[in-house]
Design a protein that fits this description.
Four Helix Bundle (Hemerythrin (Met), subunit A); flat; mainly alpha
C-alpha cells in the first residue's frame, strides 16, 4: 500500500471519476455526431467522391485519420483511468506496478491514472530515427551539389 493519506487518495479518486465522466461525455457526443467506425464517405456526407477536388479528398482523409487517432488515444486513457480506479479498490493504487515503490503524490496529481513511477515509465526513450525519405532527398541533393549544374535543381 502506498503512503498516500486518506484525503490525498480521495482527492485523486475524485479526479479520476471526473476524468472518466469527461471521457464518457466525449464518447457519447462522438456517437451522436456519427459513429467513429463509419466510413469516410458516410462521415463527410458526400454521395460520391468523384466530383471532389483531390485536395478536398486529402483534407477529409487527414481530418478523419486525425479524429480516429484522437479517439484511440482517449480510449486508451479511459482504460487507464478505469484500471486506476480498480487499483484504488484493490488497495494497490499509488504503488509502481514494475518496481513496487511508492509513486509520489505530485506525480499522481499530474497523471492520476499512472501505474508507474518516473523511473519505470514505459516508452521513455525518444526515437532518433529519421524518415526514410530523408535518405533519398539527401542522396539527390548531394548528387546535385557534385554536378554543380542549374538543371539539377529544376522541377520536371
Amino acid at each position: 500500500m502506498s503512503t498516500l493519506t486518506k484525503d490525498q487518495l480521495q482527492e485523486l479518486k475524485n479526479a479520476l471519476l471526473e476524468q472518466r465522466e469527461d471521457l464518457q461525455r466525449h464518447f457519447e457526443s462522438s456517437m451522436e455526431d456519427g459513429a467513429p467506425a463509419e466510413s469516410l464517405k458516410d462521415s463527410t456526407g458526400e454521395l460520391s467522391s468523384y466530383d471532389n477536388h483531390p485536395a478536398d479528398a486529402g483534407t477529409e482523409t487527414f481530418e478523419r485519420s486525425r479524429d480516429l487517432a484522437i479517439d484511440d488515444t482517449l480510449t486508451e486513457e479511459f482504460n487507464q483511468v478505469n484500471e486506476a480506479l480498480e487499483r484504488i479498490e484493490q488497495g494497490t493504487y499509488g504503488t509502481c506496478v514494475t518496481c513496487g515503490k511508492d509513486i509520489p503524490f505530485e506525480r499522481l496529481e499530474a497523471i492520476p491514472y499512472t501505474a508507474y513511477c518516473i523511473d519505470d515509465t514505459p516508452n521513455r526513450e525518444l526515437s532518433n530515427e529519421r524518415p526514410v525519405e530523408e535518405e533519398v532527398i539527401d542522396d539527390a541533393t548531394e548528387r546535385c551539389r557534385r554536378s554543380q549544374t542549374a538543371q539539377c535543381w529544376q522541377v520536371r
